[in-house]
Amino acid sequence: MTHKKLDGLKFTWWAPSNIALVKYWGKKEGHQLPANPSVSLTLNESKTRVELNVLKTEECSQNTPWIDLYFSGKKMPSFIPKIEKFFKHASEELPFLNDYKFLLKTENTFPHSAGIASSASSMAALALNLVELEQTVKGHNFSETEFWQRASFLARMGSGSACRSVFPHAASWGETDNFGSDLFAERVECHPIFKSMYDSIVVVNASEKKVSSRAGHGLMNDHFYGKARYHHALTNWHHSIEWLKDGSWDNLGNLVEEEALSLHAMMMTSRPGYILMEPQTITAIHLVREYRYRTGVPLYFTLDAGPNLHLLYPEEYRADVSKFLVDLKDQLGANVSIIDDKVGTGPYRIKEKEQL
Ligand code: 2P0
Question: So what's the pLDDT on residue 353?
Fold first, then answer.
């Protein structure tokens, strides 16, 4: 151990989840490299706090695990393998991780498996803590740009979509002919209409998914429509960057719905194929479109890899949409809940004196 001693250090970051407008679905060879570029909006309320404690060497026996984890105050061994896998990859970049043991304390502001990407928020928060540790080891701070890029790079190793969660408002990840990298995401310039956009998340089923995203990505290898999908996503990426900039929400909203259904079409037509949408998902899609056609309110849906809907709309329609959401809930049934979120400004650090 030749580096500065990290014993007893503690960092805490909150990081939000994000919702993809253009979807990442399928990987290139390598570790967590996207087969196509994606674009997302950063959420505000749906976020994860990760406190990273470097254990003091004298506190660790041989039996102390490399990673120990508490989620909402309870030991959560089922979360550890994914984090250990992440640390293993991250330690190729940050070899000092092998010299210590770590205790993580985490909590979400939203129910686990509510259709909100908790791997995105948790891996982003964890990555930010690791960048702080790296700065301590190196004995100097990264520049502002380097810091966020490094956090995004490390977050990607934990979960692809997490690399987009470290930026305010909107982010893009993936190499294109004129922008971006597969290794980390970047902030995307966007019109003010998107900075205050709402996302009401309609939770029709909060149970664990039948097919994990990791497995879903894998099924894109040798997918009959794989090449066409990646070409389609790249075209949509170009449009989305342009429309994010100029504020063309109707154009972008239609594209976002097309992306959501394309994602699920890929799942349905993979081998084996599978369906994550539920009857209530389809009912909600019809109701959203019928409402939009009838009223002109620019309310558009998107889907993550699950049955729950994200309903996106500009702030000025908040009152109208709130009334629609009450009706929607009535029609979908008592087991449906709605989580109100909006676009946010990205992660933040909790200073030592403010820690719980
Ligand atoms: C996305 N999703 O762009 C897409 C759309 C879900 C649907 O990225 O294997 O948890 O950890 O890189 O990021 C979910 O997959 O997968 C996802 P890994 P991840 O947000």
Answer: 52
